[in-house]
Amino acid sequence: MTQPILVNVTEEIVRGLVRFLLYGAEYQTFCHCEQCEMNIIASALNNLPQKYVTSDVARTKAFSVLSTPHNIEAINKEIIHAIHKVGQGLDHSE
Ligand SMILES: [Zn+2]
After folding, report:
1. Domain limits for position 48
2. CA distances from 59 to 6, 28, 49, 51 (A)
3. What's the number of domains the chain is made of?
4. Of the N and C termini of the chain, which has fewer Cβ atoms inside 10 Å?
5. Is 13 inside a domain boundary?
6. CA-based nearest residue to 12, from 70, 78, 69, 62
7. 0.85 exceeded by the pTM?
8. How far away, in angstroms, is 54 Cα from ligand 1 center?
9. CA 47 to chain CA mean position, Å
10. Is 77 part of any domain?
C-alpha cells in the first residue's frame, strides 16, 4: 500500500504552466519574483475547478484527463488572464 497523498492536480498543472509561460519569450519583461508568480497561480486557480486526489494512481489518471489539448488551452487562457491582472496591479502585495 502506498502512502496516501492530498494534492490538487489542477494546481500542479497550473504551477508548471505558469513557470513555462513566465520563462518563455512572451513574458520576458514580466516581473519574475516569487510573489508575482504565486499571485498569478492563485488568481488562475480561483477561476479553475479544483481536482483533489488522494493516490498516485488517481493523480496520474487526473493528470491525463486534465492534460488534453482542449483542457490545457482553457487553463492557459485563465493563466494569461491572471498574468494580465497581476501585471496591472503590480505592487507585490495581495
Ligand atoms: Zn514581482
Report:
1. 7-87
2. 9, 32, 15, 9
3. 1
4. N
5. yes
6. 62
7. yes
8. 33
9. 11
10. yes
